[in-house]
Every structure is written in C-alpha cells, then in structure tokens.
Amino acid sequence: MAAETREAKNKSHIRKPWDGNIRDVVSLLVFCQGGEGEKLQLLVWEDQGIVTLPRKEITAQDTIQERETGGSPSGTALGTATAPSPLLIWPRDVSYELVAISLAAEVLKMNPSHVNSPQLVQLTRIYVPSLRRHFHHSVFAIEVSSKQFEKAQGLEGRVRLTLSELKKVPESKLERRNIVTVAEHVSSQLKGKCCDIGASLKEIGPHQIWHQVDSQHMTPDDQLLRSPGYREQDIELLYEEYVRRSYPHATVCFRDMKPFLTDLGWKDKEADIFRAMDGQKTGELGPREFILGLTAMDPMTSHGKGPAEIRCRYIFKYYDKNEDGQLGVTELKELVKDIAELQGLDVTPKSLEERTKKALETFDIEEDSKLSLNNFLVCVGNLRFRGTSLLLRANMSIIPHLVHKYGPSSTQKVRSPFRSPASPGLDRKKFRKGSLTDNERDQTANIQCSIPLSDGAFQSQDSGSYTLAHHTVKVRRSGQITDIHLLLDMERAGEVCDTGFDVDEMIPCDSNGEMQSSSMIAPEVPQLRHRFFDRYQSVEAFNLRSLPNEMITALRFFEHEKSGKPSLNWGEVDMMKLGQYIISMCAAIKDVFENEPRLLWLSTPCYILGDIHGNYRDLVCFEKALWRVGPHLTPANFLFLGDYVDRGDYGIEVVSYLFAQKLQATGKFFLLRGNHEVRDIQKMFTFHQECIRKFGERLGVNVWNAVNEVFDCMPVAAIVDKKIFCIHGGIPKLDGHVKDLERIPCPLPNPESESNLAWQMMWNDPVAAEDLNDDVSEQLMSNNGFAFNEKRQTAYVFNQAAFNAFLQRNNLTHVVRAHEVKQAGFEIQQSGRLMTVFSSSHYCGGSNEAACILVHNYRMRIIRIDTS
C-alpha cells in the first residue's frame, strides 16, 4: 500500500469539526464460494494489523449524470480522493452501484466491464444535525470466481480469510465487528441458495436518544440525561462528537475513543473507562452507550435516585477489572483508595487496610468472598457506604468542553438543501415576549431569554454629612499605592492651607501610616475615641505594614512571574510562616464578621459578584477592572455572594485576598456565605485537601479550621437600596419578613441543623422547566410554591408564584443570586426580576464566562469580564 494511503488512513482517526469534508461512503465485501468444507472465502484489507473492508468516499464525479456522459469514477479504495462539499451531492443523483463496481475493479485490478454486479447488503443512514442532512454508508457484496480471487489475494494489502478465521480475529484487530456481521449475513443467504442476498437498513440520529417526555413516562436513562441540565442541543453536541469518532461506521471503538477520554482527564485509565461504558461487552459503543456513559461521568450529573443507580453500575463495572460481575478484595481496595484520595484522606497501607476492612463489614462480606452488584447498589442506595459520588467524574464539564472545542451545536450554521428529518417527540416550543400566561411562566421558570433590564424603583439611603479625609494617597500608574501624607503635615509645611483640622485632634503618623503614639486617647471620652477610631481605620487602610496590606503584597508576589518563578506560584516562600500569617488574619477578620448583622443593608453604587471557586486568576481580573486602586479609593461597595473555595486550585489565595480587603475596607467589602463555606462540603470536594497539600497535615488542618471559623460568622443575605435581595442560593421558605433573618445565630458551624433559613438561602434554586413533573407540581401547589430540591438532594426549589409573593411581602423588586454556573456568566429569569451571576470563568474546565452586576443610578447593569 502506498505511504500516502497509509498516512491518510492514520489521519482518518483524527476527527475534526464538520468542514464540508464528510461524504457518503461505499464499502465492499469481496467473496468467493469454495468447495466442500469452507463455503465462503473473503478478501479483506489489512493495514497496520487492522482488518477492514475496502471503501471509497462518494465524490461529485460519481453521479448519474457523469455515468450517462461516460465519465469514469475516481478515487482510491480508502477514499483519499478530494471532492467538493457534500452539499453539492444529492443522494438521489448518486449511483452507489457504479461506485461499488469502480471500487471492486480497483481492488481486483480488473476492467470495470468484467466485474459482476454487486449487491447491497447493508445501508446505514447517519444524520448530522449541524449539516441538516443524512450521510450514507453502503456496504455491497460482490462474488468473484476462484481464479479472480486467487489473483487478487496476492496483491499488496489484500488478505484471504475464511468466515471461521474472520470470527477468530481479535476485536482489537478488527476495524469494526460489523465486518463479521455482514459476512455471516452473506453466508446464511448463500446457504439458502438465494439469488438476492437482501439488505438491512440502520438509521442513526439524536432522536433515538433524546425524547421530550413527561416525568411519569421518563425512563432512568431519560432522568440521567436531564440530571446535568442537558437539553436537546446538548445531546446534539454529544451525538456529533460520537459521529466524529465513529463515521462512517455505526459504532465507535476504543482506538477512536481513547483521545477523547484522555482530553477528559482519564489518561492511563482510558481502557477501564471504555470497558465500563461497554455494557454489551462487544468492544464497541453505539450512540446511546456513548452518550449515556459520558453523561454519567459529567461532574454536573446528580448522584441521587435514578442517576445515582446508573452511575453506580458504571462505577462497579469500572472496578470489576476481570469482568466476572463481582468485586474481589483487591478490586474493592482500589475503590476505597480512590475515594480516600478524592476526599484528601490518608492512603498509607495501614489506613487503607483499615478502610477496606470497614468496607467489607459495611457490605457484610468476608475477606475471601466477593461483592455482588446488587449488594453494592443496596448499600450505596441506603447510604451505608459513602463517597461514591466522587468517583468516575471527568475533570471538566463535557458540554462546555465541546462548545469550547467546536462551538455550539447549531442547525443554523450550514444551510442545506436537505431538510432535517421529522424526529418524534422533538417539537420545539416557541416563546414570544408577552405571550405567556402566568401559569406558563411558572412552567418555563428556568428558560433563559433576552429581555430589557428593568429600571427598578430604588430609594437610596440618606447620606450623612461629608467630612474631609485626613490624608492624601500617592498612586502609581499601575494602581499600586506607594505613599500617604497627612493633610495636617502638608498644612504645617505650607503646601496646603486651612484644612479645618484641629491640631490637638490629630494623631501623628510616619510616612507609612504607622501611628507614633496612642497615649493621647482618652478612654473616658467616648466621642473622642469614636472620632479617633474612624480616622485610625481610614489611615490604617493605606498602611503598607498593616496585616491585610502585607497579605496583599504577598499575593502580588504570588500572582506575578519573577526571576524564574512562574505566575500563580509561591516559589521559595516559607509556607509555614504564610500559614501562620493566614491564621492570624482569620482571627482578626472573625471579629469583624461577628459584629455584622446576618442581613446586610447596603447602598449603591454596588458591584455584586457570584461564585469564585478558587479562581484567583479571575479574581485579579475583577480587581483590575473594578477596584484597581483598592476598594477605599473606588466609589462603590462590593458584595460577594459566596462559594469562594472548592473546585479551583487557589481557594486559600482567594479567601486570603478577600479577607485582607475586608479587613482594610470593612465598610465597602462584604462577603456572604455560600454552600461551599461548609466543612462537610469542602471535605467532599477540594478545599480541605488543598490546605493540607499547601501547608502540610498539621498546619494545613489548622489553617482550614481557622478559615472555616470565619465562614461560620459570615452574613447570609443582603439588601441593596432597600429593594434588591441578594443571597447565594435562593429565596427562603419564609412566612414572615426578611428582618426575621436577623435572628439567625452567629457563629453557625452547622447551618443544616442549626438554621433552616440559612441553609435554604445557601442551597435553594428556582425550579427548572425540565424538572417539573407531577410530583414536583403537586408539592409546589401544596407548599406555597416550594418543593424538595431533587437536584441538590437538600433544601427547596421555588416557582414564580413563591418568588412574586416573597417580593411583594417584603416590598422588594429584584433578587440577585449565584449558585449555578451559566455559560454567559449570568442568566435572567422570572420576567427580569431574578438574576443569577457567576464570576468564575472556565468552571471545571468548561468555556463559561465570568460576570458581575453593577447596581447604580436605578439600573442593574451586567458586566462580563474578559478573563482570556
């Protein structure tokens, strides 16, 4: 075989976005009927040890018109010829039989006029949504004489095999098992002495996987597909990735699947993942197995009820290395070890043996026994065995990964003369602004749409009397503060005049803002102490030697690349000293949060930011865009809605930065508590392990505890300009007034058991349209618009009726929340009165953007930050 052909063959496994190069394909099975014994002999193609059938891609030259004008087909057995776009080729104009004859002539090195008429034995129709048309893979069978067969088998790349020999070829050496299926079909028809072999038809499309069904008729597979929030267009993205990996075949094999699994973070584990997805143990995946398997591994897929059972079946198969349907002690030990590592626990041999022994007791089996699938499912389902929710998770959300790689699935990208086939159950609803009834709006609560922002009806808080600050601040062009000077000193030096300051009231400071003496403070004069404290806080904010500013300086070093040290790296910094510094800062900031109300009342202008999740790089982007010279010199408040840690690599740096800014600008930087500011959640995810990894076992735990003691004291809600209610999760199920939130205890180490109100505001969600079913609807009707949150497996979801009642009862106009990742960094719901904001881009390896909201001048303006 020519080197060019082999190279083209190798490159065919590298799938690319549809660019007009996908074409119809014809494959050929050449056979000869033998004498006694073996009835069928086959001529197949072998390239680099892989057995396949010769095939050819259809070009515009292979049309009926070309045949009628006497044109001859061109191309090679493996389809290396170039061709125009497939949209120029209409299937009804293609003579597939002529292409098969041309292919047979090339394989057998014969004149096309001497080739017998081929018979179609299999036709596969594969629909590509983004191109809005079907593509066809036709398999023809052609019988040749024994003389022709003997002559052809001596040519390069051609291999003679009997049917029994073909069946014995290992799966890893077969391009697809369909070769055996086709050969068996031909053999069975010949045994019946049929003149016409007959053909089978396969049709593949996304409509075979996704169906619009109500909750009562949902299968477990339907529930799994909807668990991570997938919609029809997301299934199309997954399906087209399957076609990229499989075309022109009806299945995808491990060779084509391996690069994709590696991209998702399964390096060196691809074979085990593929085996877990291969439920039929055929060595190949159909579109349904492909999509369901990937969905089960998506980090956003729920681990509760139906989806949890399906995920557990995949997990069981993943660890069942010998495929005997049971987990031996060695296999169970590996499962236990992986859970411990993901939880950041000790995995020394001794501790691992103890955990394995405890697991055996949990499953009630002896060390010489094996764990059955049913026993595994029962123990996990009854919560007797915990930690499986962390297993079998890709390193990134799959849909954002595909969007980032190929762009969104869109049937608008390519205009095709072929109409999309009618797919059962895929009727699209059209929503027109102003055309929905109140009931319909409830049913479509989570549908994102583009609508103008409301001006609102804000009433700003009354401002107090203005006073002159006692110092000036010198700032570099980069925004870094370099020096401060007291105005009184400048007045004495004659640089300014008549500041109005009383010399006796001033506290002398050095050039760094350090107070030289505090002996003049009179404890018995409260007004003087209060006046001094205000001025001290103002000057201390710019003191470069203060605790928060030293932390900011250290973080600047961490952020930048310096003399061989990469960016976002501590280099040779003494991590033990840094850890102790963070613990000291936590002790200081804890007092600040303890003295704040549980419900904050803020004025505008105010920037509101959502989840950060350890994304220090994006936090710095927000700083440079919004408060480049620091919060004290920026005329706005800053409100963060929680989830500062977990899932990102720099959770400790994020909280250190935010705590430092809060310390030096207590009246301008405000931090609410999110659902990840809870110890049990952090142990399930990454922050607990991150602290230990950066500071060691003992100091890491101390740092983690110090940070969480601060989290325990954080406020849980805020109201901006008396009209905009801000929380991390969602509105609570509250019959009274929002002022009742002031009774939430502080500190709050266990919010789930100590304050149901706080727990709800950290976990609640607006109900999604696809999650509505009879059970949920009944709960919403009987519980004033609230129902159990199945997705989170805790707290509630709420509908528009509950949302409207909450706003009206508390004289509010809008709600701003975080808690859910959004592709654009934000989402607008509930007729423009509910906004979700997410401030960490590329979340879990995805392609989402980061955004924030500016509330100012009776407007709520969404700002999307370029974090590239």
Provide a short characterization of the protein structure.
The chain is α/β, with parallel strands linked by helices and 868 residues long.
Structure, described:
The protein is of the alpha/beta class and 868 residues long. The protein contains 30 helices and 28 strands. Strands 1, 2, 3, 4, 5, 6, 7 and 8 form an 8-stranded mixed beta sheet that branches. A 6-stranded mixed beta sheet has the order 15-19-20-24-26-25, with no helix packed on it. A 5-stranded mixed beta sheet has the order 18-17-16-27-28. A hairpin with a 2-residue loop joins β2 and β3. α8 packs across α11, α9 packs across α10 and α12 crosses α15. The longest helix has 20 residues.
Descriptive terms for the model:
single chain; Recoverin, domain 1; Nucleoside Triphosphate Pyrophosphohydrolase; 28 strands; 6-stranded mixed beta sheet; alpha/beta; 15% strand; 8-stranded mixed beta sheet
List the helices and strands and how they pair.
Layout: H1 3-11, E1 25-33, E2 40-47, E3 50-52, E4 55-57, H2 64-68, H3 96-108, E5 119-128, E6 133-143, H4 146-153, E7 158-162, H5 163-167, H6 178-191, E8 200-204, H7 220-226, H8 232-246, E9 252-253, H9 254-263, H10 270-277, E10 284-285, H11 287-297, H12 305-319, E11 326-327, H13 329-342, H14 349-363, E12 371-372, H15 373-381, H16 398-406, H17 438-443, E13 471-475, E14 481-486, H18 487-492, H19 526-540, H20 547-559, H21 575-594, E15 599-602, E16 606-609, H22 616-626, E17 637-640, H23 651-664, E18 669-671, H24 679-684, H25 687-695, H26 697-711, E19 717-720, E20 724-726, H27 751-754, H28 756-763, E21 765-766, H29 774-782, E22 786-788, E23 796-798, H30 800-809, E24 814-817, E25 826-829, E26 834-837, E27 850-856, E28 859-865
Parallel strand pairs: 1-6, 5-8, 15-19, 16-17, 17-18, 20-24, 21-23, 24-26
Antiparallel strand pairs: 1-2, 1-4, 2-3, 2-7, 5-6, 9-10, 11-12, 13-14, 16-27, 19-20, 22-23, 25-26, 27-28
Helix pairs in contact: 7-12, 8-11, 8-16, 9-10, 10-12, 12-15, 13-14, 20-23, 21-23, 21-26, 25-26
